[in-house]
Amino acid sequence: MDREITPLADNDCYLALKARDARFDGSFFTGVTSTGIYCRPVCSVKTPKRENCRFFHHAAQAENAGFRPCLRCRPELAPHSVVWSIQDASYILAHQAARLLDEPEVWAEDMAPTLGTDVSSLPPEGARFALGRPGGKTRGWPEPTVAKLAAKLGVSDRHVRRIFEAQFGVSPMQYLQTHRLHTAKQLLADTNLPITQIALISGFASVRRFNAAFVEHYKLNPTQLRRQGPARVGEVGEGVTVRLGYRPPYDVQAMLAFFTKRCISAIEFVTPDAVQPALGRTFSIEAGGKLHAGWLLASFDESRSQLVLRVSDSLREVLPLVIRRVRATFDLDADPATINSVLHASFPEGDGLRVPGALDGYELAVRAVLGQQITVAAARTLAQRMVDRFGETVETPWPQLTRLFPAPAVLAAAGGDALGQLGIVRQRQAAILGIAQAVAEKRLQLHSGADVNTTVAALKELPGIGDWTAQYIAMRALRWPDAFPAGDVALHKALGVQGAKNPAKEAELASNRWKPWRSYAVIRAWSGTLERPA
Q: What does each C-alpha distance from 233 to 189, 274, 407 come to in angstroms?
């Protein structure tokens, strides 16, 4: 069942539903006409009769058709449907629009109100869409609108609405509403956060609008849903725990081995051999003009194809954004079936490999510069010295986690001499200072919602940043699935082109058969799973 090429095949969906096949989790949802509820294909309830089933690509379509989400399988836990295509322009544009709507940081670049700003001081649009706070103060992310979405895509409002509704069967704002309701529903079910706080951090302008949307879509108010849901884990002071789904196959050990090899003491630790393999990290994130710092622990429950995420109380206010970054870090929304249809012939042993991301694109960019033309171990040593010298201290439940990665403003103010004392050569000093200054001044955005071509070009204009570094950042920080660092020496060896007159050109030519999934091909080549013709 290839949803990029063929329409939704109802009979195939029903077979996957009967088998409770986790490979299709999030690829479609089943609306049951006899109950008015829609479910994931992995739902454990008794399989409904075929004549009572309607199938939808997206949860927003099911909700627009009048179905309510199942309280048992919880559709908000399904991995997202992140599709990249080389099909027609309208298809690409519609999916790019959906990707932008899913990324709150995209809209923060336009008009993120400063925490504590009086609503009356904002322009009408900013006041209308600011997230409410007692006393008329604002916080959180600004509201996407069709006009802003069209401006980012370079087309008209009318065209965005037309192609979006043709592709998804709902309007952009209906799609966004479903996304917000799913976020709120997960927080209601999994956390002890106050309902008022959940309403605001999920993107609703007021608790009244939140309650009205909930009753309209789910026929329950938020308090009723919380009472009917499972027991929540974690009280105040112990952190917040949520579950995030992914589609198998997923090579957990390979993912954690990648992070283990690059692990920096004091900011992260990895336990790959535990009953539930896990990664612990310190983390900071800026939202609404305020810096939130804390910790997280991500552990894998492979039997349920889920990642269990525990987040410190200090990050509660930005929990939806943390969840988005964690999903990107562990590549939880990848569709292995679609990717493997292109790559399996070349990498038969790599079906479960994912592209490791980054919680902080700025940190990843600095570490990428440190890794230029040296070994991973040597780059880790330099990064360790940087953390020990410039990293701010932070409290966590683990003695292994005591610092944050140095903030952009801190490195920008440190200067080349201070970096040189750590053993960082002059060329890399200039690159690190350039990245830190650009990020601190908001001139450079390094997250999965940033425009890839514009950002790669901006990176290359910085001193000491070449194509390899820019492509590596695009692959891991921007989450671009078709990034390809053609100049990578390890890649040349894997492809057997290291002896060519122009190995980068030969590698680029060899990679054409892997488009649009070359980032995944790179990870598989690095892992040694490439099968070359005899």
A: 10, 21, 32
